[in-house]
Specification:
The structure holds two protein chains of two kinds.
Chain A (H helix, E strand, L loop, with lengths): L15 H9 L1 H4 L7 H8 L7 H15 L3 H7 L1 H4 L5 H4 L7 H14 L3 H18 L10 E6 L19 E3 L2 E2 L3 H15 L6 E5 L11 E4 L4 H15 L6 H9 L14 H13 L7 H16 L3 E5 L9 H5 L10 H20 L8 E6 L5 E4 L7 E3 L3 E2 H8 L1
Parallel strand pairs in A: 1-6, 1-7, 2-9, 3-10, 4-5, 4-6
Antiparallel strand pairs in A: 2-8, 7-8
Helix pairs in contact in A: 3-8, 14-16
Chain B lengths: L1 H10 L8 E2 L7 H7 L5 E6 L19 H7 L3 E8 L6 H10 L18 H9 L6 E4 L23 E3 L1 H8 L27 H11 L4 H8 L5 H15 L4 E5 L11 H24 L7 E6 L23 H4 E7 L7 E8 L3 H9 L16
Parallel strand pairs in B: 1-9, 2-6, 2-7, 3-9, 4-5, 4-6
Antiparallel strand pairs in B: 3-8, 7-8
Helix pairs in contact in B: 3-10, 6-7, 9-10
């Protein structure tokens, strides 16, 4: 079947809101090339489980596609139309399994040396669409906070090396009540600008007490889910014929209930957390990888006004079969290695934040927990400078925002 | 993007003292040829598992490779732009390096390359025995890297492949916890473990070829800290006992980056740096290799750029962006100019034609070109 043959009944198996959206968009969808369309259907089929910012962006994108003339469609999708597909790909049930199609398409693009052509087409599409349906900047400057080095002793090496050119390094931060001060600050923002999924707190360990206005996820709270997932992986890889691609597909199809997650009524958040574990790499095993990937996905998908990420030390590296085996209650941690991971993770958190609208007004703070070092980035902070001013984190905040 | 990368490349190695820009020199292949010994040997090391410039030879990365910077680079010819236009999976990319053709085989299946390998060309054209071409590789699928299924070459015409982790498994009657750290495998798909080979055959390789008893091997392995260290230990035995003319070593520790832990990725680079320097020292001190061996070191490819929103930085090599496709090549040995940096682009598939020109065989199916500055 080709996109031009799409009919409303093809979307019968979609969740209710996704079905409605897809059906209403059929005239626009029919005009799209098959090398592109499943990428869009992969987003539509998940509509019921998307964050508000993602929903708004998807509706804008579909509306914009529907408004294009035939000539504009031909121009915008010319690169995709020139991608040649295999019969095998065309026979995939791309309406109901768009993610599997995209995964197979990726392999096809690599093996047929069409990946570069696809990248060019995709970049052109993304640039045009970003210009046409640009998201609104947030009503308050976006704020990112990364807390690194939990439990680490002194560190002689330079921290925040990649971030220093963009902000002011503070060497005499008073660490007392630092975490509380930061949580209070983000809570105040959440109360002042209450938006669903607008203010997040991610913890790489057990979360500190926090206000319900924050959306909180943590590596610690997901321990039962992680244990169930690892058990599932162990069971799957023992099955005859199980290879990496099949395992990845199996994991991608898991639902929270498959891992014994009791429903809290928040399907959106439950699905999101599950995807962090099933689609992220290393997130099941290393808390530092979990916190960084979770931050990336929160920023990309929920586009929050506020994001506080507190890293926690990861377990020491071990052979994969040991890491996959029964989860230890108190695994040995690698504090020194974790600090290096987290320093890089903070840099990635800032990079990902700066990809969102309003970047020129965004603010970012990274703090070495319980120590005197912090770095602040924002319009009010001189770049590439160092300050020896003594201040607690609350004071630093007032300078930053 | 290409301009920016190119611009950055001009900054490459700017802090390394004593290096000359290659384009400023006149070629004198006649003069170099006069210095090339007749019984030449070649050792290729893939600085493996995908390493980016910014953690290796770019100014900010040089702190991670002190041994290569100090001991190798001043004596080497260095290419700052080696572009891999093929599939960025480790097995298929290594197969492409070994055939001179961008292979399209399944990265996670134990399949032979479709095109003849450098080992097959070498052995057929120069009528060399199987003992003269060896591969030491990590175990995930690389057991088929030694020879293709090409109809003009194929079974029995390629390199012998030795998989140190398989050897270690074979040497152990049961898997002791003391060795688990040496058996890490396949970071890209960490849950997938390939089949174990024939234990008797592995033990035979250990005792007959490497002249190592299982007990001695196990005892020494216990002192090592990573799979690549185990590989170098096997290489040392291979060099001393067999002295092959073509030796191909695939390193893989760096690919731990897929787990998302930057510190482990950096540790992998630092370890590989040390092992490369140790290898060169070994080659210089072994009579069969000293003064007649060219060492070529290159990553199979890079990793995704920090600023590519489609990836997650160092963690993977999935976007196919320039940072993931562009790496470097270092060549050192007799007849190779010392302390020279070339900024022009070469391709991964140029390696086999270059080896062909060095060793005087004809890689007729390879699609790359000999790197003129090295031959």
């Amino acid at each position: 079947m080709l996109p031009r043959d799409l009919q409303p009944e093809h979307f019968r198996a979609y969740p209710s809101e996704a079905r409605k959206l897809a059906t209403e968009s059929i005239p626009a969808l029919r005009r799209l090339p098959l090398s592109f369309l499943p990428n869009l259907l992969r987003e539509i089929i998940e509509y019921d489980f998307k964050f508000p910012a993602e929903r708004a962006a998807l509706i804008k994108e579909l509306t914009s596609l529907g408004a294009l003339s035939d000539a504009q469609v031909a121009d915008l999708f010319g690169g995709f139309s020139r991608i040649t597909l295999s019969t095998q790909l065309e026979n995939v049930d791309w309406v109901n399994s768009p993610a599997q199609f995209v995964e197979q398409l990726s392999g096809h693009l690599w093996t047929t040396h069409q990946l570069d052509a696809f990248r060019i087409a995709a970049t052109k599409y993304a640039d045009r669409m970003n210009a046409a349906v640009a998201a609104e900047p947030p009503p308050i400057p976006r704020l990112g906070i990364s807390i690194i080095g939990q439990g680490a002793g002194s560190f002689d090496g330079p921290l925040f090396r990649k971030l220093r050119p963009y902000g002011t390094y503070f060497s005499r931060v008073k660490p007392d009540n630092g975490l509380s001060l930061l949580l209070d600050a983000v809570t105040a923002r959440a109360k002042g600008h209450p938006v669903p999924y607008g203010h997040w707190y991610i913890d790489g360990g057990e979360p500190a007490v926090n206000d319900s206005t924050l959306t909180c996820i943590s590596y610690g709270a997901l321990k039962p889910t992680r244990a169930a997932l690892l058990a599932r992986i162990r069971s799957e890889i023992e099955r005859p014929g199980m290879g990496p691609e099949a395992l990845r597909s199996t994991m991608a199809q898991l639902r929270p209930a498959d891992l014994g997650v009791h429903s809290t009524g928040n399907d959106v958040l439950e699905r999101f957390q599950l995807k962090l574990l099933t689609e992220g790499s290393g997130t099941q095993l290393f808390s530092t990888s979990f916190a960084q990937w979770a931050a990336r996905e929160v920023l990309r998908r929920a586009q929050p006004f506020t994001l506080l990420v507190r890293f926690a030390p990861r377990q020491r590296q071990k052979p994969m079969n040991e890491l996959l085996a029964a989860m230890e209650n108190q695994p040995e941690t690698d504090s020194a290695g974790s600090l290096v991971d987290e320093d890089m993770g903070a840099y990635y958190n800032w990079l990902n934040q700066q990809r969102l609208p309003g970047a020129e007004k965004s603010c970012f703070l990274v703090w070495f927990e319980d120590h005197n070092s912090a770095l602040a980035i924002g319009p009010s902070m001189p770049r590439g400078t160092k300050s020896d001013s003594e201040a607690d984190l609350g004071r630093l905040f007032t300078w930053l925002l | 993007m290409s301009w920016r990368l190119s611009s950055n490349r001009r900054e490459f190695l700017r802090s390394a003292a004593g290096l000359t820009l290659g384009s400023a020199l006149l070629r004198s292949s006649f003069a170099r040829a006069a210095n090339v010994p007749r019984k030449k040997k070649v050792v290729v090391v893939t600085f493996g598992g995908g390493a980016r410039d910014q953690e290796t030879f770019s100014p900010e990365g040089q702190e991670n490779i002190p041994n290569m910077m100090r001991d190798l680079l001043p004596r080497a010819t260095f290419f700052t732009q080696v572009v891999n236009r093929g599939i960025l999976g480790h097995y298929v990319a290594t197969a492409s390096l070994a055939t001179g053709v961008y292979e399209t085989i399944n990265n996670f299946a134990a399949l032979p390359p479709a095109n003849p390998t450098v080992f097959e060309y070498y052995r057929k054209d120069l009528r060399r025995p199987s003992s003269d071409a060896w591969v030491v590789a990590p175990s995930n699928g690389f057991n088929r890297i030694g020879e293709s299924n090409h109809r003009s070459y194929g079974e029995g015409t390629g390199a012998r492949v030795i998989l140190p982790k398989f050897l270690l498994k074979a040497a152990m009657s049961d898997r002791g916890a003391d060795y688990e750290h040496l058996l890490r495998d396949n970071y890209e798909n960490p849950y997938y473990t390939p089949e174990l080979g024939n234990r008797e055959f592995e033990l035979q390789q250990l005792e007959m070829i490497l002249k190592l008893s299982a007990a001695d091997f196990k005892a020494h392995a216990k002192t090592l800290s990573s799979p690549d260290e185990l590989s170098l230990y096997i290489v040392r035995q291979l060099i001393r006992q067999v002295a092959p003319s073509i030796l191909w070593i695939t390193m893989h520790d760096i690919d731990v980056a897929h787990a998302g832990a930057y510190s482990l990725y950096i540790e992998g680079i630092q370890r590989t740096d040390r092992l490369c320097a140790e290898l060169w020292k070994l080659l210089e001190n072994e009579p069969e290799y000293s003064g007649k061996t060219t060492l070529l070191v290159l990553p199979d490819f890079g990793r995704d750029a920090d600023d590519d929103a489609g990836g997650n930085g160092f963690q993977h090599h999935r976007t196919g962006d320039l940072a993931a496709r562009t790496t470097w090549l270092m060549a050192i040995g007799p007849g190779i100019r010392e302390g020279i940096v070339y900024d022009r682009a070469v391709e991964s598939i140029d390696l086999v034609p270059t080896l062909g020109a060095m060793l005087r065989f004809s890689p007729s199916f390879a699609q790359g070109k000999p790197i003129s500055e090295l031959v």
